[in-house]
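Give me structure tokens for this 440-residue protein.
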Amino acid sequence: MISRIDLRGRTLSRRELLAELPRAEVDVEHAGAQVAPILDAVREQGAAALRDLAERFDGVRPQHLRVPAEALRDAVGTLDPAVRAALEETITRVRKVHAAQRPTDFTVEVAPGAQVRQRWVPVRRVGLYVPGGLAVYPSSVVMNVVAAQEAGVGALAVASPPQKDRDGLPDATVLATCALLGVDEVYAVGGAQAVGMFAYGATGEADDDGAVLCEPVDVVTGPGNVYVAAAKRLVRGVVGIDAEAGPTEIAILADATADPVHVAADLISQAEHDPLAASVLVTPSAELAGAVESKLVDLVERTFHRQRVATSLGGTQSAIVLVDDLEQGLAVVNAYGAEHLEIQTHGAAQVAERVTSAGAIFVGPYSPVSLGDYMAGSNHVLPTGGCAHFTSGLGVHSFVRAVQVIEYDANALGEVADRIVAFAQAEGLPAHGDAVRARF
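Here you go.
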């Protein structure tokens, strides 16, 4: 069901190690060629293209691209009380963590009369995408919206695919979550076309073909499939993006102290997302590897999405990686840079401190990835495909910009005037020096 990669007794360079490790093959370039005409259509035709694309990809032509206010109210009114309680608890915890992420302005006096300040300024408007393909994700509404709200963003819009069995409205729990968070600008638009609508704006809603449907945004965030990732790549520069999210992934670094049932259950929970989802166990214990393999056979057969899970676990992106010891195991997981990394070892907290590349780290037997997906308080929109080497998950920082404010008085500028002139001459830009001389 799941393959093995044996690295024991082998000394590998980082390049060689990366070549050995499993990873989902995602051709964003190929998807981009298919997505480019979609983005062009949205930019040129607005709402008409959005309706045509919904009919083509979602099997329904929405009557309202912008979800009516009454649909949001109705969704809250019909929300299962247990689900509402879970959502409200998640919102509380995520808000508490993200409130602590707000960066602090600072002022530095470089010299008497010479001051540099840094202010953190939220972006004006954001577009938040919530997937709705193999599964629907009200939890992603919370992660996107709360981070933007805590950053101080003034205008938020959410898009999620129209559902055929709901006459073109997005999933009811997604709508209810938007309403609970106070978001009233919600669109029944999915996939790459949602990214295009956010990036370029769109007109043509209601009877007036020139009426504005959606104003352009400054930043687009949220997970999605390869076509969403390709669309983000193509509009980057027109707008900011969080990341090009690929298939989800879990890596588990575990030793002989780990419970094989816990490990197998966590591998399955991630495989449940997508046939391309990656589930990777890294362990120095051959006994644990064998026990996990045995448990997978039993648990997969009993899981609800067993075909999807079996495809994921049997794919080239998933594997059990055998290593000599935890030292080599750490080298493996740091090279892999997993979206989600669980540490199920003796002294897990100390081992976790030595991890340098992961979207989020889950420490010990009672911190499964499922906790982070819903209720930990952390954000579950995380870098995939090794992007954890150079970027971080979604947070308040995704929606703010650092603006430097420079203020010198005459004496402070005079103190460095000759040095600025010398610098300008050295770079062959004498007018730069002249601009300083002109003040004296």
